[in-house]
Amino acid sequence: MITLDGKRAIVTGGATGIGRATARVLTELGARVVIADIDTDGGQQTAKDTGGVFVRCDVSRREDCEAVAAVAQEQFGGVDVLFNNAGIIRRSTICEITEDDWDLVMAVNVRSIMLMSRLVIPGMAAQGGGSIINTGSGWGISGGASAISYCASKGAVVNMTRAMAIDHGPDNIRVNCVCPGDTATGMLAEEARQLGENPNAFYADAADRPLGRIGQPRDIAQTVAFLASDAASFVSGAIIPVDGAGTA
Ligand code: NAI
């Protein structure tokens, strides 16, 4: 049984989906959590569920990220765990995507990790270590159809995880990446909407997956909790698919 007793965590994208489930699991294991999200209603609900602290934040904006780090410092006295999880998708090929959508996806999925991580790394280094977990995607490893900016962004997340782990290993800061497969969250419904498809299509073929189902947010959250914990003390720079052996 792992424990996160005494750990102080930030979860971005914690208003819904994988982020909300992770805030819950981290709390169940003893951590205190700051939930950062652009969605105020959802974020406040997660804070209520977990006894955590919600900060409204657009993770692509430096000032907003600074406010999140400041709240963690003021309320908890520092940060042991950063879960860089907020993300968006735009379903389009390279010929279809607008420059604005390209920039938005890269800002929310990639720039955010740069902004948030460098706000907490000095404090982690000073206190003797910490754990950063980034959310990649199976498509960040294999690519996928009609999601060029998303695939590019998640490929960047995967590779920056390795680079961050190398740079900050000497500070005992571990940096890892979870790569979910299809997981039952609002993002799947949003993808279906963008493609003009029925959201149930993602669920209909679930029985054909190796484990007979797609992922649930808690499946991802439990892996994040392990990576956040001292049980993962020699796990760094790892890119971990959490996809039930499903295709990306
Ligand atoms: P979700 O849509 O339920 O959650 C995403 C969260 O990010 C939402 O709470 C949303 O409000 C927040 N967010 C979006 N833009 C933001 C911004 N600018 N600033 C702050 N917060 C913002 O989707 P899900 O599935 O929980 O996504 C979490 C992560 O998992 C994302 O990085 C996604 O790319 C990744 N992922 C999800 C998969 C899936 O099948 N659901 C598969 C592979 C990766």
UniProtKB/TrEMBL annotation:
The keyword Oxidoreductase applies. Keywords: Oxidoreductase. Pfam families: adh_short_C2. It comes from the Bacteria. Belongs to the short-chain dehydrogenases/reductases (SDR) family. InterPro entries: NAD(P)-bd_dom_sf, Sc_DH/Rdtase_CS, SDR_fam. One of its GO terms (molecular function) is oxidoreductase activity. It comes from Streptomyces laurentii. Coiled coil: none annotated. This is Short-chain dehydrogenase/reductase SDR.
